[in-house]
Records
---
Amino acid sequence: MDFKTQIATANALAAISTDALLVVLTGEKAPADLDPALTAALTAATKDGDFTFKAGQCLYAHRVAGVKAARVVFAHAGDGSLKAWRKAVFAGVGVLKAGGSKSLVVAGVGIAELGADHAEAVATAIEEATYIYRKTKPSAPPETKLVSVALVCTKAQQDTVAGGLVRGEAIAAGVTLARELGNSPGNVATPTALAEAAKALGKSHGLKVEVLERKDVEKLGMGSFLAVAQGSAEPPKFIIARWMGGAKGDAPVVLVGKGITFDSGGISIKPSAEMDEMKWDMGGAASVMGTLRAVAQLKAKVNLIGVIPACENMPDGKAIKPGDVVTSMSGQTIEILNTDAEGRLILCDALTYTERLKPAVVVDIATLTGACMIALGGHRSGLFSPDDALAAELLSAGEQALDLAWRMPMDEDYDEALKSNYADMANVGNRMGGAITAAMFLKRFAGKMRWAHLDIAGSAWKSGANKGSTGRPVPLLVHFVLSRAS
Ligand code: BES
Ligand code: MN
Ligand code: ZN
């Protein structure tokens, strides 16, 4: 998709040559400065009961008299907030995406001040609306014919809006990559395939990618990561991908992504219902790759390193058993009381590894606990950090990106649940506060690093009829990383 700006005013929209025109409105009636031909269509539709001035309303009109564009869609953006604007664009494009339009012009009328965030939202909403998974489904609907999108603005807004479009395009590409990796079935998106995808991304986007094999991580002493991997026939991969766009010697931002390409639970096997959804247990890894892609595409002046421990969690004669004790790379021992709490077992070694990268900050991203999904549902990701300033940065990045998180507590009292009689800690507490005890476990491996943890169990994918990856929290992470660029 190609995004650009177009200078025009509300009263001249009918004269724009394009296949489709999407008019995003607010308020209770057609704005006074709206083009007369469009106003006539809108007024008639309102009279006929086909459109009301309410949030979420959408009207399609074909070959409107006096309008150059063959297709017009009116979409109402409620209170005119950024969120409502994005929803309206999403709905409007939803109407047009399967049709014959190749070009689309989006115009906001009565929107207070069109800014970079609006432009970003246009790009990300269009990605979300037009993405189709096809990799293993030849019968999937054809790709949208839409190839070019122009956002109407004034001359004065042009630079800001163009900047927002560039950022939005990069975020959208990152989200698409994350969705594509996540949606790919477990037998396609294996740890090896993730490593290959990282290498391909390195080639196309100028990242330095290193993949550690089983023997390499054995040498590093990642006994906890290897313990999870030992029950699978798929070899584990430990991926390190670097975008060094910042000054030499600038401490990097490190993103650690959980890359369990399938989580059966292991010997503590999961129930069969919906177990297929555990192919998404590499959502953290996918979001790290998507973020790297976006940040590299924007050539951001920042040093960003993605660290991805990738393996399967499977039951097998060689698999870890409840009660087994393993030694992590940090030297701390762990009693594995539940083999289904495997995410923390691979992340703890990845965090210890990250210490040698001397990060400015490290954020891990993981589909870590069902408990977090129960606590927050799918709307907000769970944010955990003992560092108030870092937590505030991440929350605000989420707000800017319309990719929200919610901070959860990390009082030391929660750590008591991890006591073990046979090792330095157990890998699970009881069911109470399960998302928090998981975070407390990780905290034991964060050492002196400035660290935060995002539990994306609820936000990384959707179940039900619209089952699929969301690509979250790529938008949040890109905003966070960009805010740390010089
Ligand atoms: N990958 C799961 C968490 C998960 C479950 C994410 C459902 C999204 C939906 C994780 O590895 C896991 O199994 N966690 C256990 C932890 C428990 C054994 C302490 C859980 O949440 O049940
Ligand atoms: Mn699990
Ligand atoms: Zn898992």
---
Amino acid sequence: MHVAAIFPQLVPAALSLYLRWFPLRQALSRNPIEIEGGMATETLAQYSLSEFAVDVRLGLTKDGQKEIPSKYFYDEVGSALFEVITTLPEYGLFRADERLLRENAETVAETLSPGQVVVAELGSGSGRKTFWMLEALAKRQPVVYRPIEISQKALEQCSKGSGQLHNVQVRPLQEPYLDGLLSVAAARRPGDQLLVLFLGSTIGNFESRAAEQFLSEVRRRLVPGDSLLLSADLEKPLGQLLAAYDDPLGVTASFNLNVLARMNRELDADFDLSGFRHLARYDAAERRVEMHLLSTRAQRVAIPRAHCSVSFVEGETIWTESSHKYQPEQLKQMGCRNGFRPIRQWLDPEWAFAQTLFVAE
Ligand code: AVI
């Protein structure tokens, strides 16, 4: 059986065309179809491995700067490393976000009308900091919490934590953000109000144009009067920025290098991790911290399950992530350009970080 026979139903048309030559045995054999296990989850797992192989091949064999999308950081090992990053003294983003939520959750709750509120969180992770928001809302009205995540493990953790709260019903969705939000919108009952949480400055991991497009896609899934709470990291002194992405313990370096280890695990690649080092740098014109993996010598790497091998010259990098940094006003304008009206903005006094509350127009 050839992958072309099933991919048209699973992936966008262009990707389906690209995948035509992938023999099914090689592309999918690690995730055999188990009908009893539940079709949706199995389909997602197969799709993910093939998508990873395609993105690796595209990103590492293209002309110019080699790239791997940052979404591939978050396998089980990467997600655990990210949890550690959030506790590092140099990485102030997570704590700033949590402080703002704790202090302002009541005010956000006051802006909502009575009746049931559906809280859709895009990329909930373990949902640790969302607790404050759910607690504040649940004091006033019934809450349905819909964490949207690709990672099954994160969803389980998240459900365990928030499931304890009185007046909160947790209904997780294992889907990509926009698909998940579409499912939430489709399931809403008349009178339900939607509050979308997009926390952690994940918006900063999108390229500028993609961030705008993403906000506009979020807006398309809402109705006037729904809300969006958006967190974003702000510009700050260079030393502070770089330390946040290159901590002295080397946790962020491991987080970055794990994407090579993941290719070894899942795509049978033969990356020698000692031939690469973590690099964090700031592009002042684009206002973003970039993470790269720098090849410390000339080398060639085989990635059999992505059907390619790749050469590196000494000093060449793989660009693995961008984290854009904003000015508060810029965030309000981004919302306005995409169908939202900013109604409140809070800045953290300890770490330059903003939460902006928008209403869908
Ligand atoms: C998830 N995201 C907002 C983090 C960031 O700061 O861009 C990911 C991260 N990369 C390195 N450290 C943390």
